[in-house]
């Protein structure tokens, strides 16, 4: 009968890899989803790793899928006081009122709800980019009436909808370009109707 492998420094046997609990597997999938939502992992790599998480046979295989992930902090705002990042994980965030928006705004939602009423926001750039990453979440954004809206977002088993309605006043109007992806979630961007 073969002995268990032993550590030369002690008399105790080395632990053999055990089976994975469903909770451990789901925790790794949640970490991967959060990494995708924060732009640490691109979509194709996220899908590959999630597939490997569900087929992993041991805890060490599972741990290897998240060892290199380190969530990055937000880039500092180029304009003092400008709203540059809004994020929610397993929660709810609502913002409204007079905001200052810089050249780029990042919205990150993971299993959460984010509602941004920017109808009274002051845009500081001729082109403002809003980058939305929505994973199993809901994101709703209302923009000022005087903007032209460009939708460059996409969805995977979700919805990414932009409605311009009567927004924009022609040449010289600020442009808001919405990019990003909704995965098993919903993104809705609306331009406020002009008053008067």
Structural features:
196 residues, five-stranded parallel sheet, 18% helix, disordered N terminus, alpha/beta
Characterization of this structure:
The chain starts with 21 loop residues before the first helix and ends in a 5-residue tail after the last strand. The protein has two domains: 22-64, no CATH class; 83-191, no CATH class. Strands 1, 3, 5, 6, 8 and 10 form a six-stranded parallel sheet that branches. A five-stranded parallel sheet has the order 2-4-7-11-9, with no helix packed on it. By secondary structure, the chain is an alpha/beta fold. It has helices at 22-37, 43-55, 59-64, and strands at residues 83-89, 92-96, 100-110, 113-117, 122-123, 127-135, 138-143, 148-156, 159-163, 175-183, 186-191. α1 packs antiparallel against α2 (43-55). 28% of the residues are buried.
Brief summary of the model shown:
This protein is 18% helix and 38% strand. It has helices spanning 22-37, 43-55, 59-64, and strands spanning 83-89, 92-96, 100-110, 113-117, 122-123, 127-135, 138-143, 148-156, 159-163, 175-183, 186-191.
**Backbone structural class:** alpha/beta
Shape: elongated
Uncertain regions: pLDDT < 50 for 5+ in a row? 1-16, 71-78
Q: Main β-sheet: number of strands, strand sense, barrel status?
A: 6 strands, parallel
> What is the strand content?
35-45%
Give the helices and strands as they follow along the chain. HHHEEEEEEEEEEE
Provide the residue-averaged pLDDT.
Answer: 81
